[in-house]
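Two proteins were folded this term; both appear here.
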Amino acid sequence: MTLHGTAVMDGDQVEVRLTPRSEGTAAVADATVRLRWSVALADEQALPARCVREDERAVLCGTGALAVDAAGEQLRLPVRLRERAPEVTLEVSTVWSSGGPDADRSNDRAEVLVLATGDPYAF
């Protein structure tokens, strides 16, 4: 599974748009991705239904089903940081995947530096 998307930071708000894609030879019934920030998130968050807080810096989100060699549904995840920061590092990784084994785990992780410019940063 590959993970592609963008992250935009404006003030203490970060919006991530993530599209998972199955690159394997078998469909994936569901998978879980972890989004971890280099700074703490605010205590109160309005997370999408398929996401849950893991700890003070991370959120886990389900991807839903992924067909063979196809993109899944885009996940839009807005979060608030505990404090404003000039930049944050966002790590995105697959932590669980149903279905067949993934022969190439190197594409299950992405890291992006997001500056507080309001511009989208791609991963």
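Next, the second protein.
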Amino acid sequence: MKFSHIVKLAGIALVGLMLSQQGFAKEKVYTWTDSKGTVHYGERPPKDVKATLVQTRTGHSDPTPAQVAASQPKAEPAPPAEDPRVAQAAALKDPERCAAAKENLSILNTVARIRTTNEQGIVVPLTEEDKVQQRIATQKVIDQTCE
């Protein structure tokens, strides 16, 4: 193996070791190559050489949805309702969704030109037939979510 390969491997191992240390990983790390072709790493690059900032990682990652769910307190199961349809209807009651649906219906009932995005991602105006279908669907949401 050539000496330059050994130096590069040693440099990579040294950077890996330094980055694995939490205290060091928080500092800025620069890399540069000297006139002999040797790669160097350090907190402060020399003034006469072009250096590149190395992106370091601390090993921290955001929790996954499963970890978040596991850390949340378990909700008590609801007591069984006598009629499943009554329980389902009660679960659908949502004041925020109700208010949004009522606002959407009032907009659909105006003469304003309403635009939507189609399956190809193109913004197109709603036709009168589309508005009628949207009114029917919105009224169903109002019937389900409003008390």
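The longest strand covers residues 29-33. The two ends are 79 Å apart (CA to CA). These notes refer to the second protein only.
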